[in-house]
TrEMBL record:
Keywords: Membrane, Transmembrane, Transmembrane helix, Transport. This is Fucose permease. The chain crosses the membrane at residues 44-71, 83-101, 113-134, 170-192, 204-223, 340-358, 364-386, 393-411, 431-454, 461-480. InterPro entries: MFS_dom, MFS_sugar_transport-like, MFS_trans_sf. One of its GO terms (molecular function) is transmembrane transporter activity. The lineage of its organism: Bacteria, Pseudomonadati, Pseudomonadota, Alphaproteobacteria, Hyphomicrobiales. Residues 46-485 form the Major facilitator superfamily (MFS) profile domain. It is found in: Membrane. Belongs to the major facilitator superfamily. Sugar transporter (TC 2.A.1.1) family. GO terms for cellular component: membrane. It is a multi-pass membrane protein.
Protein backbone atom coordinates (compact mmCIF):
# COMPACT_ATOMS: atom_id res chain seq x y z
CA UNK A 1 0.00 0.00 0.00
CA UNK A 2 1.26 3.44 -0.83
CA UNK A 3 2.29 5.85 1.93
CA UNK A 4 1.64 9.59 2.01
CA UNK A 5 4.69 10.29 -0.10
CA UNK A 6 3.66 7.73 -2.70
CA UNK A 7 0.38 9.41 -3.51
CA UNK A 8 0.67 12.69 -5.29
CA UNK A 9 -1.20 14.93 -7.62
CA UNK A 10 -0.61 18.06 -9.61
CA UNK A 11 -0.38 21.41 -7.82
CA UNK A 12 -2.69 21.11 -4.79
CA UNK A 13 -3.32 24.82 -4.83
CA UNK A 14 -5.05 24.54 -8.21
CA UNK A 15 -8.67 25.50 -7.70
CA UNK A 16 -11.10 22.98 -9.15
CA UNK A 17 -14.73 21.93 -8.82
CA UNK A 18 -16.10 19.71 -6.06
CA UNK A 19 -16.60 16.85 -8.48
CA UNK A 20 -13.00 17.20 -9.71
CA UNK A 21 -11.77 16.54 -6.18
CA UNK A 22 -14.23 13.71 -5.58
CA UNK A 23 -13.27 12.04 -8.88
CA UNK A 24 -9.52 12.48 -8.38
CA UNK A 25 -7.52 9.31 -8.92
CA UNK A 26 -4.56 8.83 -6.56
CA UNK A 27 -1.20 8.63 -8.27
CA UNK A 28 1.70 6.33 -7.43
CA UNK A 29 5.23 7.70 -7.22
CA UNK A 30 6.02 6.34 -10.69
CA UNK A 31 3.18 8.38 -12.23
CA UNK A 32 0.57 5.62 -12.65
CA UNK A 33 -2.89 6.01 -11.16
CA UNK A 34 -5.16 3.57 -9.35
CA UNK A 35 -7.87 2.03 -11.55
CA UNK A 36 -10.76 3.58 -9.58
CA UNK A 37 -11.50 6.12 -6.88
CA UNK A 38 -11.66 4.54 -3.38
CA UNK A 39 -14.72 5.50 -1.34
CA UNK A 40 -14.12 7.22 2.00
CA UNK A 41 -15.75 6.29 5.29
CA UNK A 42 -17.97 9.38 5.15
CA UNK A 43 -19.12 8.50 1.64
CA UNK A 44 -20.09 5.00 2.77
CA UNK A 45 -21.89 6.44 5.82
CA UNK A 46 -23.92 8.75 3.59
CA UNK A 47 -24.76 5.90 1.26
CA UNK A 48 -25.84 3.51 4.02
CA UNK A 49 -28.07 6.10 5.72
CA UNK A 50 -29.71 6.95 2.40
CA UNK A 51 -30.23 3.26 1.66
CA UNK A 52 -31.93 2.89 5.05
CA UNK A 53 -34.52 5.50 4.06
CA UNK A 54 -35.44 3.51 0.96
CA UNK A 55 -35.62 0.36 3.10
CA UNK A 56 -38.20 1.95 5.40
CA UNK A 57 -40.32 3.03 2.43
CA UNK A 58 -40.55 -0.51 1.08
CA UNK A 59 -40.99 -1.90 4.58
CA UNK A 60 -43.92 0.30 5.61
CA UNK A 61 -45.74 0.62 2.27
CA UNK A 62 -45.67 -3.07 1.40
CA UNK A 63 -46.35 -4.21 4.97
CA UNK A 64 -49.62 -2.32 4.68
CA UNK A 65 -50.69 -4.93 2.14
CA UNK A 66 -50.26 -7.64 4.78
CA UNK A 67 -51.99 -5.54 7.45
CA UNK A 68 -55.05 -4.62 5.34
CA UNK A 69 -57.12 -7.74 6.17
CA UNK A 70 -56.46 -7.12 9.87
CA UNK A 71 -57.45 -3.46 9.58
CA UNK A 72 -60.59 -4.55 7.75
CA UNK A 73 -61.69 -6.94 10.47
CA UNK A 74 -60.67 -4.87 13.52
CA UNK A 75 -62.24 -1.62 12.28
CA UNK A 76 -65.06 -3.23 10.23
CA UNK A 77 -64.24 -1.31 7.06
CA UNK A 78 -65.10 -1.88 3.41
CA UNK A 79 -63.47 -1.41 0.01
CA UNK A 80 -63.60 2.40 0.14
CA UNK A 81 -61.81 2.53 3.50
CA UNK A 82 -59.34 -0.09 2.23
CA UNK A 83 -58.52 2.28 -0.57
CA UNK A 84 -57.95 5.16 1.85
CA UNK A 85 -55.53 3.11 3.94
CA UNK A 86 -53.70 1.78 0.88
CA UNK A 87 -53.36 5.27 -0.59
CA UNK A 88 -52.50 7.14 2.63
CA UNK A 89 -48.73 6.58 2.61
CA UNK A 90 -48.54 7.18 -1.12
CA UNK A 91 -50.50 10.43 -0.91
CA UNK A 92 -48.16 11.49 1.89
CA UNK A 93 -45.18 10.72 -0.37
CA UNK A 94 -46.77 12.84 -3.09
CA UNK A 95 -47.23 15.83 -0.79
CA UNK A 96 -43.87 15.37 0.92
CA UNK A 97 -41.93 15.15 -2.33
CA UNK A 98 -43.44 18.35 -3.77
CA UNK A 99 -43.37 20.40 -0.55
CA UNK A 100 -40.54 19.13 1.65
CA UNK A 101 -38.25 17.68 -1.03
CA UNK A 102 -37.84 21.01 -2.79
CA UNK A 103 -36.79 22.67 0.47
CA UNK A 104 -33.39 20.98 0.18
CA UNK A 105 -32.56 23.49 -2.57
CA UNK A 106 -33.10 26.35 -0.10
CA UNK A 107 -32.09 24.98 3.31
CA UNK A 108 -29.59 22.31 2.34
CA UNK A 109 -29.48 18.57 1.77
CA UNK A 110 -28.45 17.60 5.31
CA UNK A 111 -31.14 19.47 7.32
CA UNK A 112 -33.95 17.91 5.29
CA UNK A 113 -32.22 14.52 5.41
CA UNK A 114 -32.44 14.68 9.23
CA UNK A 115 -35.86 16.30 9.58
CA UNK A 116 -37.58 13.74 7.36
CA UNK A 117 -36.45 10.88 9.62
CA UNK A 118 -37.61 12.68 12.77
CA UNK A 119 -41.08 13.04 11.20
CA UNK A 120 -41.06 9.39 10.13
CA UNK A 121 -40.16 8.06 13.60
CA UNK A 122 -42.71 10.25 15.38
CA UNK A 123 -45.65 9.05 13.32
CA UNK A 124 -44.44 5.46 13.16
CA UNK A 125 -44.71 5.36 16.95
CA UNK A 126 -48.11 7.07 16.82
CA UNK A 127 -49.38 4.48 14.32
CA UNK A 128 -48.67 1.66 16.74
CA UNK A 129 -51.22 3.18 19.15
CA UNK A 130 -53.94 4.08 16.62
CA UNK A 131 -57.46 3.29 17.85
CA UNK A 132 -59.51 3.74 14.65
CA UNK A 133 -59.03 3.61 10.92
CA UNK A 134 -59.06 7.43 10.57
CA UNK A 135 -56.01 7.63 12.81
CA UNK A 136 -54.37 4.85 10.78
CA UNK A 137 -54.94 6.82 7.58
CA UNK A 138 -53.57 10.05 9.08
CA UNK A 139 -50.46 8.46 10.61
CA UNK A 140 -49.66 6.56 7.41
CA UNK A 141 -50.06 9.84 5.50
CA UNK A 142 -47.66 11.62 7.88
CA UNK A 143 -45.08 8.86 7.44
CA UNK A 144 -45.49 9.29 3.71
CA UNK A 145 -44.61 13.00 4.05
CA UNK A 146 -41.22 12.01 5.40
CA UNK A 147 -40.68 9.31 2.78
CA UNK A 148 -41.64 11.78 0.04
CA UNK A 149 -39.01 14.22 1.21
CA UNK A 150 -36.50 11.37 1.10
CA UNK A 151 -37.06 10.72 -2.62
CA UNK A 152 -35.10 13.72 -3.93
CA UNK A 153 -32.97 14.29 -0.83
CA UNK A 154 -31.49 10.78 -0.57
CA UNK A 155 -30.67 10.70 -4.28
CA UNK A 156 -28.93 14.08 -4.17
CA UNK A 157 -27.02 13.42 -0.98
CA UNK A 158 -25.54 10.33 -2.62
CA UNK A 159 -24.98 11.61 -6.15
CA UNK A 160 -23.43 14.93 -5.05
CA UNK A 161 -20.92 13.22 -2.75
CA UNK A 162 -19.61 10.23 -4.70
CA UNK A 163 -17.38 9.62 -7.75
CA UNK A 164 -19.09 10.01 -11.13
CA UNK A 165 -17.99 6.54 -12.19
CA UNK A 166 -19.90 4.98 -9.28
CA UNK A 167 -23.00 7.19 -9.33
CA UNK A 168 -25.35 4.84 -11.17
CA UNK A 169 -24.36 1.76 -9.19
CA UNK A 170 -24.51 3.42 -5.79
CA UNK A 171 -27.74 5.37 -6.31
CA UNK A 172 -29.46 2.23 -7.58
CA UNK A 173 -27.77 0.15 -4.89
CA UNK A 174 -29.40 2.37 -2.26
CA UNK A 175 -32.69 2.29 -4.14
CA UNK A 176 -32.49 -1.53 -4.07
CA UNK A 177 -33.18 -1.38 -0.37
CA UNK A 178 -36.74 -0.38 -1.19
CA UNK A 179 -37.15 -3.91 -2.56
CA UNK A 180 -35.30 -5.36 0.42
CA UNK A 181 -37.65 -3.44 2.71
CA UNK A 182 -40.67 -4.71 0.79
CA UNK A 183 -39.49 -8.31 1.16
CA UNK A 184 -38.55 -7.93 4.83
CA UNK A 185 -41.83 -6.12 5.50
CA UNK A 186 -43.94 -8.95 4.10
CA UNK A 187 -41.69 -11.48 5.86
CA UNK A 188 -42.01 -9.73 9.22
CA UNK A 189 -45.75 -9.51 8.66
CA UNK A 190 -45.89 -13.28 8.22
CA UNK A 191 -43.62 -13.88 11.23
CA UNK A 192 -45.69 -11.64 13.52
CA UNK A 193 -48.89 -13.35 12.41
CA UNK A 194 -47.28 -16.73 13.13
CA UNK A 195 -46.20 -15.73 16.63
CA UNK A 196 -49.22 -13.55 17.45
CA UNK A 197 -52.30 -14.78 15.52
CA UNK A 198 -54.67 -11.99 16.51
CA UNK A 199 -56.15 -8.88 14.88
CA UNK A 200 -53.89 -6.51 16.79
CA UNK A 201 -50.77 -8.11 15.30
CA UNK A 202 -50.45 -5.24 12.82
CA UNK A 203 -49.33 -2.94 15.65
CA UNK A 204 -46.28 -5.12 16.30
CA UNK A 205 -45.54 -5.26 12.58
CA UNK A 206 -45.06 -1.51 12.44
CA UNK A 207 -43.43 -1.34 15.90
CA UNK A 208 -40.63 -3.59 14.62
CA UNK A 209 -39.25 -0.66 12.59
CA UNK A 210 -39.09 1.88 15.45
CA UNK A 211 -35.66 1.13 16.94
CA UNK A 212 -33.86 0.81 13.56
CA UNK A 213 -35.46 4.09 12.45
CA UNK A 214 -34.25 5.88 15.60
CA UNK A 215 -30.69 4.67 14.99
CA UNK A 216 -30.78 5.91 11.38
CA UNK A 217 -32.07 9.29 12.57
CA UNK A 218 -29.15 9.66 14.98
CA UNK A 219 -26.66 8.64 12.29
CA UNK A 220 -27.86 11.34 9.89
CA UNK A 221 -26.76 14.10 12.28
CA UNK A 222 -23.12 13.14 11.65
CA UNK A 223 -22.88 13.43 7.85
CA UNK A 224 -21.51 16.39 5.88
CA UNK A 225 -23.47 18.96 3.93
CA UNK A 226 -23.22 18.76 0.14
CA UNK A 227 -20.21 20.85 -0.90
CA UNK A 228 -21.77 21.02 -4.35
CA UNK A 229 -24.87 22.71 -2.93
CA UNK A 230 -22.79 25.11 -0.82
CA UNK A 231 -20.60 26.04 -3.77
CA UNK A 232 -23.68 26.70 -5.90
CA UNK A 233 -24.71 29.31 -3.31
CA UNK A 234 -21.28 30.96 -3.42
CA UNK A 235 -20.25 29.70 0.05
CA UNK A 236 -16.78 28.64 -1.05
CA UNK A 237 -15.13 28.43 2.40
CA UNK A 238 -17.93 26.26 3.83
CA UNK A 239 -17.87 24.08 0.71
CA UNK A 240 -14.12 23.50 1.09
CA UNK A 241 -14.57 22.60 4.76
CA UNK A 242 -17.30 20.05 4.03
CA UNK A 243 -15.38 18.61 1.05
CA UNK A 244 -12.36 18.05 3.33
CA UNK A 245 -14.54 16.19 5.84
CA UNK A 246 -16.04 14.14 3.01
CA UNK A 247 -12.66 13.10 1.60
CA UNK A 248 -10.81 12.08 4.78
CA UNK A 249 -8.82 8.91 4.01
CA UNK A 250 -5.48 7.24 4.75
CA UNK A 251 -3.16 7.99 3.09
CA UNK A 252 -4.71 11.40 2.61
CA UNK A 253 -5.38 12.82 -0.83
CA UNK A 254 -5.92 15.36 -2.07
CA UNK A 255 -3.54 17.13 0.31
CA UNK A 256 -5.53 20.34 0.17
CA UNK A 257 -8.86 21.32 -1.36
CA UNK A 258 -9.25 24.60 -3.16
CA UNK A 259 -12.54 25.13 -4.94
CA UNK A 260 -13.22 27.41 -7.84
CA UNK A 261 -16.30 29.56 -7.31
CA UNK A 262 -19.11 28.49 -9.62
CA UNK A 263 -19.24 30.55 -12.80
CA UNK A 264 -22.87 31.39 -12.13
CA UNK A 265 -23.21 31.04 -8.37
CA UNK A 266 -26.69 31.06 -6.95
CA UNK A 267 -27.38 33.29 -3.99
CA UNK A 268 -29.60 31.89 -1.21
CA UNK A 269 -32.53 33.80 -2.69
CA UNK A 270 -31.85 32.72 -6.27
CA UNK A 271 -31.51 29.07 -5.27
CA UNK A 272 -35.14 29.17 -4.17
CA UNK A 273 -36.46 29.91 -7.65
CA UNK A 274 -40.01 28.80 -8.39
CA UNK A 275 -41.24 25.53 -9.86
CA UNK A 276 -41.95 27.43 -13.09
CA UNK A 277 -38.28 26.92 -13.99
CA UNK A 278 -39.03 23.23 -14.49
CA UNK A 279 -41.27 24.05 -17.44
CA UNK A 280 -39.19 26.59 -19.33
CA UNK A 281 -37.69 25.76 -22.72
CA UNK A 282 -34.40 24.63 -21.18
CA UNK A 283 -35.79 22.18 -18.59
CA UNK A 284 -39.14 21.06 -20.05
CA UNK A 285 -37.77 17.96 -21.76
CA UNK A 286 -36.07 16.84 -18.55
CA UNK A 287 -39.26 17.42 -16.57
CA UNK A 288 -41.34 15.29 -18.95
CA UNK A 289 -38.77 12.48 -18.99
CA UNK A 290 -38.42 12.48 -15.20
CA UNK A 291 -42.14 12.71 -14.43
CA UNK A 292 -44.42 11.04 -16.97
CA UNK A 293 -42.77 7.58 -17.22
CA UNK A 294 -42.44 7.49 -13.42
CA UNK A 295 -46.18 8.26 -13.12
CA UNK A 296 -47.03 5.45 -15.55
CA UNK A 297 -44.69 3.04 -13.79
CA UNK A 298 -46.13 3.74 -10.35
CA UNK A 299 -49.62 2.88 -11.57
CA UNK A 300 -48.52 -0.73 -11.80
CA UNK A 301 -45.79 -1.06 -9.19
CA UNK A 302 -47.80 0.16 -6.20
CA UNK A 303 -51.10 -1.29 -7.31
CA UNK A 304 -49.60 -4.75 -7.80
CA UNK A 305 -47.25 -4.41 -4.81
CA UNK A 306 -49.77 -3.35 -2.19
CA UNK A 307 -52.59 -5.61 -3.31
CA UNK A 308 -50.65 -8.76 -4.20
CA UNK A 309 -51.63 -10.33 -0.83
CA UNK A 310 -55.29 -9.40 -1.48
CA UNK A 311 -55.26 -10.86 -5.00
CA UNK A 312 -53.50 -14.03 -3.82
CA UNK A 313 -55.86 -14.38 -0.86
CA UNK A 314 -58.80 -14.24 -3.26
CA UNK A 315 -57.16 -16.80 -5.53
CA UNK A 316 -56.38 -19.10 -2.62
CA UNK A 317 -59.59 -18.73 -0.68
CA UNK A 318 -62.08 -17.84 -3.35
CA UNK A 319 -64.81 -15.32 -2.71
CA UNK A 320 -65.25 -14.64 0.98
CA UNK A 321 -67.50 -12.44 3.05
CA UNK A 322 -67.36 -10.67 6.39
CA UNK A 323 -68.80 -13.68 8.22
CA UNK A 324 -65.45 -15.45 8.22
CA UNK A 325 -63.94 -16.17 11.63
CA UNK A 326 -60.90 -14.29 12.85
CA UNK A 327 -58.87 -17.50 12.53
CA UNK A 328 -59.84 -17.76 8.85
CA UNK A 329 -58.86 -14.14 8.22
CA UNK A 330 -55.43 -14.64 9.77
CA UNK A 331 -54.78 -18.01 8.11
CA UNK A 332 -55.67 -16.68 4.67
CA UNK A 333 -53.58 -13.56 5.30
CA UNK A 334 -50.58 -15.71 6.26
CA UNK A 335 -50.85 -17.79 3.10
CA UNK A 336 -51.12 -14.63 1.00
CA UNK A 337 -48.17 -13.04 2.83
CA UNK A 338 -45.95 -16.02 2.01
CA UNK A 339 -46.92 -15.82 -1.65
CA UNK A 340 -46.38 -12.06 -1.69
CA UNK A 341 -42.91 -12.50 -0.16
CA UNK A 342 -41.96 -14.93 -2.92
CA UNK A 343 -43.20 -12.56 -5.62
CA UNK A 344 -41.54 -9.55 -3.97
CA UNK A 345 -38.17 -11.35 -3.96
CA UNK A 346 -38.05 -10.78 -7.72
CA UNK A 347 -37.86 -7.04 -7.01
CA UNK A 348 -34.47 -7.64 -5.41
CA UNK A 349 -33.24 -9.75 -8.32
CA UNK A 350 -34.40 -7.06 -10.75
CA UNK A 351 -32.62 -4.25 -8.93
CA UNK A 352 -29.40 -6.29 -8.74
CA UNK A 353 -29.41 -6.57 -12.52
CA UNK A 354 -30.17 -2.84 -12.75
CA UNK A 355 -27.15 -2.04 -10.58
CA UNK A 356 -24.92 -4.17 -12.82
CA UNK A 357 -26.27 -2.86 -16.13
CA UNK A 358 -27.23 0.80 -15.61
CA UNK A 359 -23.72 2.13 -16.27
CA UNK A 360 -23.14 -0.38 -19.09
CA UNK A 361 -26.35 -0.63 -21.10
CA UNK A 362 -27.61 2.84 -20.18
CA UNK A 363 -30.61 4.24 -18.31
CA UNK A 364 -32.88 4.80 -21.32
CA UNK A 365 -32.49 1.36 -22.92
CA UNK A 366 -33.13 -0.38 -19.60
CA UNK A 367 -36.20 1.75 -18.93
CA UNK A 368 -37.74 1.04 -22.33
CA UNK A 369 -36.93 -2.69 -22.15
CA UNK A 370 -38.28 -2.87 -18.60
CA UNK A 371 -41.60 -1.24 -19.50
CA UNK A 372 -42.12 -3.75 -22.31
CA UNK A 373 -41.24 -6.61 -19.96
CA UNK A 374 -43.77 -5.33 -17.41
CA UNK A 375 -46.47 -5.44 -20.08
CA UNK A 376 -45.55 -9.06 -20.90
CA UNK A 377 -45.74 -10.06 -17.23
CA UNK A 378 -49.12 -8.40 -16.72
CA UNK A 379 -50.46 -10.06 -19.87
CA UNK A 380 -49.32 -13.44 -18.54
CA UNK A 381 -51.13 -12.80 -15.24
CA UNK A 382 -54.27 -11.70 -17.10
CA UNK A 383 -54.47 -15.13 -18.78
CA UNK A 384 -55.27 -16.63 -15.36
CA UNK A 385 -58.94 -15.73 -15.94
CA UNK A 386 -59.14 -18.53 -18.53
CA UNK A 387 -57.76 -21.30 -16.30
CA UNK A 388 -58.74 -23.15 -13.12
CA UNK A 389 -57.66 -26.01 -10.82
CA UNK A 390 -54.51 -24.25 -9.63
CA UNK A 391 -53.34 -23.21 -13.08
CA UNK A 392 -54.71 -19.70 -12.58
CA UNK A 393 -52.60 -19.26 -9.44
CA UNK A 394 -49.51 -20.42 -11.31
CA UNK A 395 -50.10 -17.82 -14.03
CA UNK A 396 -50.63 -15.06 -11.46
CA UNK A 397 -47.38 -16.00 -9.73
CA UNK A 398 -45.44 -16.21 -13.00
CA UNK A 399 -46.85 -12.96 -14.34
CA UNK A 400 -46.35 -10.95 -11.14
CA UNK A 401 -42.82 -12.33 -10.67
CA UNK A 402 -41.87 -11.32 -14.22
CA UNK A 403 -43.49 -7.92 -13.67
CA UNK A 404 -41.55 -7.33 -10.45
CA UNK A 405 -38.26 -8.35 -12.05
CA UNK A 406 -38.73 -6.17 -15.12
CA UNK A 407 -40.03 -3.13 -13.23
CA UNK A 408 -36.97 -3.03 -10.97
CA UNK A 409 -34.59 -3.77 -13.81
CA UNK A 410 -36.16 -0.96 -15.81
CA UNK A 411 -38.66 1.77 -14.92
CA UNK A 412 -38.84 1.52 -11.13
CA UNK A 413 -35.06 1.88 -10.84
CA UNK A 414 -34.25 4.05 -13.83
CA UNK A 415 -36.97 6.66 -13.29
CA UNK A 416 -35.63 7.27 -9.78
CA UNK A 417 -32.06 7.48 -11.08
CA UNK A 418 -32.85 9.80 -13.98
CA UNK A 419 -34.96 12.20 -11.88
CA UNK A 420 -31.94 13.08 -9.74
CA UNK A 421 -29.59 13.51 -12.70
CA UNK A 422 -31.31 15.44 -15.49
CA UNK A 423 -31.88 18.77 -13.66
CA UNK A 424 -29.38 21.59 -12.94
CA UNK A 425 -27.98 21.76 -9.40
CA UNK A 426 -29.94 24.89 -8.45
CA UNK A 427 -33.32 23.19 -9.07
CA UNK A 428 -32.32 19.54 -8.68
CA UNK A 429 -34.30 19.17 -5.46
CA UNK A 430 -37.40 20.76 -6.96
CA UNK A 431 -37.10 18.75 -10.17
CA UNK A 432 -36.61 15.40 -8.47
CA UNK A 433 -39.30 16.27 -5.91
CA UNK A 434 -41.79 17.25 -8.60
CA UNK A 435 -41.10 14.06 -10.54
CA UNK A 436 -41.59 11.91 -7.43
CA UNK A 437 -44.78 13.78 -6.51
CA UNK A 438 -46.21 13.51 -10.01
CA UNK A 439 -45.41 9.80 -9.99
CA UNK A 440 -47.19 9.34 -6.69
CA UNK A 441 -50.36 10.80 -8.18
CA UNK A 442 -50.45 7.57 -10.17
CA UNK A 443 -49.61 5.49 -7.12
CA UNK A 444 -52.32 7.15 -5.00
CA UNK A 445 -54.96 6.76 -7.70
CA UNK A 446 -54.07 3.11 -8.13
CA UNK A 447 -53.94 2.33 -4.41
CA UNK A 448 -57.25 4.10 -3.78
CA UNK A 449 -59.11 2.70 -6.78
CA UNK A 450 -57.64 -0.82 -6.85
CA UNK A 451 -59.86 -2.39 -4.16
CA UNK A 452 -62.95 -0.69 -5.60
CA UNK A 453 -62.13 -1.75 -9.16
CA UNK A 454 -61.25 -5.27 -8.07
CA UNK A 455 -64.78 -5.57 -6.73
CA UNK A 456 -66.47 -3.93 -9.73
CA UNK A 457 -64.58 -4.90 -12.90
CA UNK A 458 -62.30 -7.71 -11.74
CA UNK A 459 -58.58 -8.45 -11.87
CA UNK A 460 -58.33 -9.12 -15.61
CA UNK A 461 -59.66 -5.75 -16.73
CA UNK A 462 -57.32 -3.98 -14.32
CA UNK A 463 -54.36 -5.87 -15.70
CA UNK A 464 -55.30 -4.96 -19.27
CA UNK A 465 -55.30 -1.29 -18.30
CA UNK A 466 -51.84 -1.58 -16.73
CA UNK A 467 -50.52 -3.28 -19.87
CA UNK A 468 -51.50 -0.20 -21.88
CA UNK A 469 -49.84 2.18 -19.40
CA UNK A 470 -46.62 0.14 -19.47
CA UNK A 471 -46.39 0.32 -23.26
CA UNK A 472 -47.13 4.05 -23.11
CA UNK A 473 -44.28 4.45 -20.60
CA UNK A 474 -41.85 2.85 -23.04
CA UNK A 475 -42.96 5.21 -25.83
CA UNK A 476 -42.66 8.40 -23.73
CA UNK A 477 -39.22 7.36 -22.43
CA UNK A 478 -37.89 6.94 -25.95
CA UNK A 479 -39.45 10.12 -27.35
CA UNK A 480 -38.07 12.35 -24.56
CA UNK A 481 -34.86 10.45 -23.85
CA UNK A 482 -31.85 12.11 -22.16
CA UNK A 483 -29.04 9.60 -21.59
CA UNK A 484 -27.06 10.45 -18.43
CA UNK A 485 -24.91 7.34 -18.18
CA UNK A 486 -21.31 8.22 -17.31
CA UNK A 487 -21.88 11.98 -17.61
CA UNK A 488 -20.54 14.32 -14.92
CA UNK A 489 -23.35 16.03 -12.98
CA UNK A 490 -21.71 19.39 -13.57
CA UNK A 491 -21.88 18.76 -17.34
CA UNK A 492 -25.56 17.88 -17.02
CA UNK A 493 -26.12 21.00 -14.95
CA UNK A 494 -24.44 23.18 -17.58
CA UNK A 495 -26.35 21.67 -20.54
CA UNK A 496 -29.65 20.26 -19.17
CA UNK A 497 -31.77 18.26 -21.60
CA UNK A 498 -29.09 18.18 -24.30
CA UNK A 499 -27.95 14.54 -24.11
CA UNK A 500 -30.03 12.16 -26.22
Amino acid sequence: MADNASLSRTDSTLRRTVQDHIDELPMWADGTTLPSVPMTGMQWLIWSLAAAGKFFEGYVVFMTGVALPLFSREFNIGAFEHGLIGAASLFGILVGAITLGGLSDRFGRKPMFVIEMIIFVAFLVALCFATNYIQVVFFLFAQGLALGCDYPTAHMIISENIPSSKRGKLVLGAFAFQAVGALVGTGIGFLVLSLLPELGAWRWMYASAVIPAVLVTIGRFYIVESANWLLGRGEVAKAEHEAKRLLVRKPQYPGDIKLAAAAASQSPAESGQSFAALFNSVNRRATILASVPWFLQDLGTYGIGIFTPTILAAAVGGTSDHARSIADVILQDMVAAKGAALITSLLILGILFAVLLADVVGRIRLQVFGFIGCAVGLFLASLSAYFADGEELLLIFAGFMLFNFMTNLGPNAQTYLLAGEVFPTAIRGKGAGFAAAFAKVGAVLTAFLFPVLLDSIGTQALLYGLIVTSLLGAAVTWLYRIETTGVNLETLSAKPGSLR
